[in-house]
Write a structure and sequence with these properties.
Elements lengths: L1 H12 L2 H7 L1 E7 L5 E8 L8 E2 L3 E2 L3 H6 L10 E8 L5 H11 L17 H6 L6 E9 L2 E9 L13 E7 L6 H12 L3 E7 L8 H12 L7 E2 L8 H11 L12 E10 L3 E10 L1 E3 L3 E4 L5 E3 L2 E5 L3 E3 L2 E3 L3 E5 L13 E4 L17 E7 L5 H13 L5 E7 L3 E8 L2 H15 L3 E3 L6 E5 L2 H7 L3 E4 L11 E16 L3 H10 L3 E7 L4 E9 L7 H8 L5 E12 L1 E8 L2 E2 L5 E4 L3 H15 L7 E7 L2 E8 L15 H21 L6 H8 L5
Parallel strand pairs: 5-7, 5-8, 8-9, 9-10
Antiparallel strand pairs: 1-2, 2-3, 2-4, 6-7, 11-12, 11-20, 12-19, 13-18, 14-15, 14-20, 16-17, 16-19, 21-23, 21-24, 22-23, 25-26, 25-27, 27-29, 27-30, 28-29, 31-32, 31-33, 31-34, 34-35
Helix pairs in contact: 9-10, 14-16
Length: about 675
């Protein structure tokens, strides 16, 4: 038998294809800096380049096992911190340097925005999706575990684990509006704030001026500021030293029962839901049975580990640590942000979780083609999995078909959500003009009983109640912070006054920069205020706002009529002072969007029965006088009169054909 096999092998070796295979040799190579090997086939006459390589497979080394033995880290040697900054002040660059210094990633020139994995994050220079990186750092002979939670907002913070924050300020631009907003969020949460002045390597950098601004605005001594250059790595090591020395350790204990908070999650097609968790007590190991406080379902832990920033499996997670967990959750709705996980045999009270976010901007979202409705619904479900602040409500329109009315935290939030739908799911959607939630206090006992409350919230303008059943209307207000060079102060003040704003205060933070605070109606700033502000200030002004409750206002419902018939999709809620200008603008846009018909179309904006603006779309008109080359004028008048009567009859019985494109052009946001 062996002789027969050997003879077949000798015969096969004479064939050309077998001789070609024998000319290749197999090599195994370990990639430096990573715990992976690469298997390559190389031709015998090639010295360097492989012909092709196999898939990368992980290997385990002794050093890796030592690095991921998390039981060696007591709670006293764990620090949790975040980085907060204005747009383009170097937050992602500093995160890259911290990862390099601690050995989490290999130091190369290609390390740019490592934690910003989404295309929209790299394009806009903002953090959209939370990312976590566990860093190992040795300080004064002790090894510390530093958990960098790169979050867009402070939504993961609870009272049991107060982390610290690095407040990054550009040494050239100084304090901006979002810097102020971020500081007060961190200050009100009782966090340890470490000011860091970045980009000191720039030619126009003035760190002394920025230190004076921080001391004046935030009341932080300038001696506490750390001057760094994240791009060059200058003085970045001191940032880690300050984190270890100034940020308090978590108060959790390994001896307590296990409880963990889900602060982010993603979906893997092979493993199901991957949840990012912060452990606030006890420990959890692979194979443990855990339960969800939100749904009450139980799961078996299949995999857990650290994010460095890539997934690195470990045997367990302990109190005070942050990592990822795979527990066989198959549905995207099973991993709710803010849910509490615990051992199935040891139930615990749910953690405080997150302060529920209130949607402040609403917009309709419809598929461009109704055949894409199912795919768009799946995409929205997956995006809202790790963005619980988005509210979703089914909606329908006679013109645009079935869709949703979505609620967002602000205009930027809405833009990012729409951009992610397009980039990550190839969804082609129609987003209507944003509206804000109004409130009305009812005076009718019947309506109060029907709604179960005296105060109702109005999201859809078509549901705006009549004045006769309402005692007063309320509109949302915001506190807006504007930082600008003092040369543009007059123009910006005029813009704010035109938007019904009330000035709160005005402060010079240095010799040339002014910080102004205004109370704005939210409806006045959601569309084009920011663009106008940037235009007036040549791009130097910055703007940020926060919720300031509701205030009584003189609100009215404005209907858009086409030949006397109201169009529900175009109904708007406006302030009485702005009704005429907005009605006229809407009529002009409709006039340019609706195609001409065989009869005249009257486009009107009306408040109740009073028409406040009108545009007329002229009809197509046949030249009935073409055959009249002469003769009496009465013949021509008779033909014109007959034509006018026909047009009048057509207008009375004809239906206006408004194409879908016209609704899209009028309803969509205008980026002016």
């Amino acid at each position: 038998m062996a002789t027969m096999a050997l003879s077949h092998l000798k015969q096969g070796s004479k064939t050309p294809w077998f001789r070609r295979i024998l000319e290749f040799k197999m090599y195994k190579r370990k990639i430096q800096g990573y715990s992976i090997t690469q298997t390559m086939l190389r031709h015998r006459w090639m010295k360097h380049l492989p012909v092709f390589s196999s898939s990368v497979q992980p290997i385990s080394t002794q050093s890796d096992k030592d690095a991921i033995d998390l039981s060696k880290f007591p709670v006293e040697r764990i620090r949790n911190f975040s980085i907060i900054a204005h747009i383009d002040h170097g937050k992602s660059t500093l995160a890259d340097r911290l990862l390099e210094i601690t050995g989490a990633i290999v130091t190369t020139e290609k390390n740019k925005q490592v934690l910003d994995k989404l295309q929209v994050e790299r394009e806009r220079g903002i953090t959209v999706k939370a990312q976590t990186a566990s860093l190992f750092y040795t300080h004064k002979g002790h090894r510390y575990l530093l958990n960098l939670i790169d979050t867009p907002v402070f939504y993961w913070i609870v009272d049991d684990c107060p982390p610290g924050v690095l407040l990054i300020v550009d040494a050239n631009q100084g304090i901006q509006a979002q810097t102020v907003a971020n500081f007060y969020l961190a200050f009100e949460a009782g966090l340890t704030i470490i000011p860091v002045i970045n980009k000191i390597d720039l030619k126009n950098a003035d760190p002394e001026r920025v230190e004076a601004q921080i001391e004046k605005v935030f009341d932080i001594p300038r001696e506490e500021c750390i001057r760094i250059s994240a791009k060059l790595g200058t003085n970045v090591d001191r940032v880690l030293q300050e984190v270890v020395e100034r940020v308090p350790a978590p108060t959790a204990s390994k001896d307590d029962v296990f409880k963990a908070l889900v602060f982010d999650s993603g979906f893997d097609h092979y493993r199901g839901v991957v949840a990012n968790v912060a452990v606030f007590g006890g420990r959890v190991r692979k194979g443990d049975r855990i339960a969800s406080a939100f749904l009450g379902k139980s799961y078996e832990v299949q995999e857990l580990g650290l994010l460095r920033p890539h997934e690195q499996p470990t045997d367990g997670l302990y109190a005070g640590q942050v990592g990822y967990m795979v527990a066989g959750m198959k549905d995207v709705k099973e991993a709710q942000i803010g849910d509490t996980l615990y051992h199935q045999q040891h139930p615990v009270d749910a953690l405080p979780g997150f302060k529920p976010a209130k949607a402040m901007v609403f917009a309709g979202m419809y598929p461009m083609d109704q055949s894409e409705y199912t795919n768009l619904r799946s995409a929205i479900d997956k995006l809202t999995l790790n963005d619980s602040s988005v509210t979703v409500q089914k909606d329908s329109s006679m013109a645009l078909g079935a869709g949703w009315r979505l609620g967002f935290l602000g205009l930027l939030h809405m833009e990012v959500f729409n951009q992610r739908l397009e980039q990550e799911y190839n969804a082609n959607v129609v987003v209507t003009a944003p509206t804000v939630p109004y409130k009305a206090r009812l005076s009718s006992a019947r309506l109060i009983k029907e709604h179960g409350s005296e105060e109702i919230t109005i999201v859809n303008p078509a549901q705006f109640p009549e004045r006769s059943v309402v005692s007063e209307y309320l509109e949302p207000m915001v506190v807006g912070t504007i930082l600008t060079p003092d040369t543009f102060t007059g123009q910006i003040m005029s813009l704010c006054l035109n938007r019904r704003a009330t000035q709160e205060n005005m402060l010079y933070i240095d010799e040339h920069r002014v910080m102004m605070k205004y109370i704005f109606p939210l409806n006045e700033i959601v569309v084009d205020f920011y663009d106008l502000l940037k235009s007036l200030s040549s791009g130097y002004a910055s703007f940020d706002y926060e919720n300031a409750g509701y205030q009584a206002a003189d609100l009215i419902k404005m209907d858009i009529l086409l030949n006397g018939k109201s169009v529900e999709e175009l109904t708007m809620i406006v302030h009485r002072q702005r009704a005429y200008s907005m009605g006229k603008a809407m009529c002009e846009r409709l006039k340019g969007s609706i195609p001409r018909q065989m009869f005249e179309i009257a486009v009107q904006a009306a408040i109740g029965s009073k028409v406040i603006a009108r545009e007329t779309i002229k009809p197509f008109r046949k030249n009935v006088l073409a055959k009249c080359y002469g003769g009496d004028i009465t013949r021509k008048l008779k033909l014109l009169k007959r034509q006018a009567e026909g047009k009048k009859k057509m207008r009375r019985i004809g239906n206006i054909d408004v194409p879908k494109d016209a609704f899209i052009n009028v309803l969509k946001r205008t980026d002016k």
